[in-house]
Amino acid sequence: MKEGKLIVVSGPSGVGKDTIVNKYLEKHSEDELSISMTSRPIRDGEVNGVNYYFKTKEEFEEAIKNNEMLEFALYNGNYYGTPKAEVEERIKNGINVILVIEVVGAMNVKNIMGDKCTLIFIMPPSMEVLKNRLMNRGTDSKESIEGRLDIAKKEIGISDKYDFIIINDNLEKAVRDLENVIKNNIN
Ligand code: ADP
Ligand code: 5GP
Asked: Which CATH number fits domain 6-185: 3.40.50.300, 3.40.50.2020, 3.40.640.10, 3.40.718.10?
């Protein structure tokens, strides 16, 4: 059987990664999302095992020690990472897996997986729009938003390392762009 591919989606916090990927997956149930592990606190409305596997810092460090992570990174003071077993199983079964992860983890996945992986960066129309989206989402404290905007500038600075860049201005267009990249350039 033909192996599945890894589709890595990155971009600053608040740019719309989850919104775009969820809309894509509503139409393309043949592809699947990797559920990450994190040590950050759970937000209102999030569900353990759906949005993330929420762990303590100690549990996360144990998983790293046991070689259970495909990649991981520290982001704004918390661990985030991709559990290896689920991804490997799906790829072996011919399923494309989407990882929505930050840039350090994305670069590590590229190093490990090489041609099996395609990197897509979602870009905001401007920093002002990005700040407004983070504030309107209403899920992060003022301090967390400031940290996320600082990280965003660094992330945008390495977007040229990605295979494709999609600007999320009009949401429907961004979803179509993602569909085009995946269907025309992957498989
Ligand atoms: P990320 O996953 O990148 O952190 P989200 O998907 O949570 O970002 O989106 C951040 C906020 O921006 C959400 O409130 C979402 O509804 C909103 N949003 C996403 N895309 C657009 C868009 N194209 N135009 C306006 N608002 C958007
Ligand atoms: P949030 O706290 O907003 O859910 O996520 C913060 C950042 O961590 C986002 O850029 C998100 O894409 C990234 N992230 C989520 N899961 C993972 C993961 O498994 N690995 C890495 N490296 N980053 C992740």
From this structure: 3.40.50.300
